[in-house]
Amino acid sequence: MPDLLHEISVQAPPERVYAALTTPDGLRAWWTVDVTAEERVGGRARFGFNQSATVFHMRIEELTPFARVIWSCQGDPDEWKDTTLTWQIAPVEGGSILQFRHGGWRAETRLLAICNSSWGELMHRIKAYAEGKNPGPHWTQ
Fold first, then answer.
1. Which pLDDT tens digit goes with each residue over 19-53?
2. Are 107 and 93 in contact (CB under 8 A)?
3. Which of 21, 90, 108, 131 is the most buried (most CB within 10 A)?
4. How many independent structural domains does the chain possess?
């Protein structure tokens, strides 16, 4: 099973990186404006893209404050179903290291390649938001 892996240095404390990944306002600031997300383990998150033509449904599996966030994809699109998204945040002098893994893909497909490129760009948007810049959401509808 292939995994997508990314790592980026962020000149912001882990608390700010964590907020970018766990709060609806934080998620809207870099990913998509169409977000509903509960801030609790066992909660649900919903992410809509292109006027909800595509919708991802996640279950929040772990929230370790300022250190780790794990979601499991409950479906839509089918290739994402049963995949797991994990962010690890580590404090370093001057900021944080953010590692991302989108694991559990069933096969190497065209969508996996597209998502890999998208996640690379999104990591830079998370970084910009946590550093106090305003990248805006990648998807605005």
1. 999 999 999 999 999 999 999 999 999 999 998 89
2. no
3. 21
4. 1
